[in-house]
Design brief:
Elements (H helix, E strand, L loop, with lengths): L5 H7 L25 E5 L2 H11 L3 E5 L14 H9 L2 E4 L5 H10 L3 E4 H4 L13 H18 L4 H25 L7 E4 L5 H7 L2 E4 L11 H13 L4 E4 L6 H10 L2 E4 L15 H15 L4
Parallel strand pairs: 1-2, 1-3, 3-4, 5-6, 7-8
The chain binds zinc ion (ZN).
Zinc ion binds next to loops.
């Protein structure tokens, strides 16, 4: 049996089914594979969430970034590189995790869905999933490829997509309403993951680090942040779970203001293992409304 990930097994259980090998190059030997259906590989958590919601009971979804790890610095194992080659559909984000780009370029399956294209990225910010409307666009692109790889279950995939789209539309409405009337329109975040969220909901987003969590801010940048926090009467500096809180805490401590966790939802961790994309987005919204004094 091919154990794809312990988290996946915990979520889906193991049901033996005959894999459907319809024109996708024969994804596995078939003999040693206990499978629910087609083999889907996703590159990191928000894409795993989309893959599991859309492919549902008809696929094994292997997520390449393990829980508790942040995806920016992913290094693929030999087995994972093989799993990409052996899969039926890969859902990844080109330009975000170079190891995965290389593996797909060298030996990817027939169905490769690039979230960067589907989400219509602007510039080099990869964090599109914090705008639910962009994640919905990615889900639509993924559904087309999954239905093409496994046409026998196309009706189920279409239904699952409609259900996910409805949830994402609800989430988008909650954000638009929840952030419509706020006393403060600027947020200071740890790594610069919230640009698309800010763009959609009218927040100015200032990052302490750069687009990657392990970049370090210069002293000049920290002074600018301190000035901005004073001018805009900012109440809270946001940190996150999977990256260092050092700079957020020291800036907030110096100025005597609060820190709070705003989750960039790049992956689940021990403390968020029972959460999902939707619940983390909802708790981010509540945190933002408090910090920005929203009515
Ligand atoms: Zn990031």
């Amino acid at each position: 049996m091919k154990v794809r990930s312990s988290l996946l097994l915990a979520v889906t259980g193991v049901v033996v089914a005959v894999p459907l090998l319809t024109g996708c190059g024969g994804a596995s030997s078939g003999v040693d594979k206990a499978s629910r259906g087609i083999a889907v590989v996703s590159s990191f958590y928000p894409l795993q969430y989309v893959a599991q919601r859309v492919a549902g009971d008809h696929a094994d979804v292997e997520n390449l970034t393990q829980p508790g790890r942040e995806p920016h610095d992913l290094e693929l194992t030999v087995q994972q590189t093989k799993d990409i080659a052996d899969s039926d559909v890969v859902l990844y984000e080109k330009g975000f995790q170079p190891d995965i780009d290389d593996a797909i370029e060298q030996n990817g399956p027939d169905h490769v869905v690039d979230a960067a294209t589907a989400a219509h990225l602007t510039g080099d910010d990869p964090h599109f999933w914090l705008d639910p409307t962009r994640l919905a666009a990615v889900a639509g692109a993924f559904e087309r490829d999954v239905a093409d790889a496994d046409p026998a279950h196309a009706a189920a995939y279409a239904r699952n997509l409609a259900s996910l789209r409805a949830d994402l539309a609800d989430l988008d409405r909650a954000y638009r309403r929840g952030l419509a009337h706020c006393g403060i329109a600027t947020i200071v975040v740890s790594h610069d993951a919230f640009g698309y969220l800010g763009e959609r909901y009218g927040l100015r987003v200032v990052g302490i680090n750069g687009l990657s969590p392990d970049a370090e801010p210069s002293p000049a940048h920290i002074r600018q942040l301190q000035d901005l926090i004073g001018e805009d009467h900012i109440t809270t500096v946001f940190s996150e779970r999977l990256a260092s809180r050092e700079f957020a805490q020291s800036i907030a401590g110096d100025l005597g203001i609060r820190t709070a966790v705003l989750d960039p939802i790049e992956g689940l961790s021990d403390t968020t293992a029972d959460q999902d994309y939707l619940s983390l987005m909802r708790s981010n919204l509540a945190t933002l409304r408090t910090a920005d004094r929203c009515a």
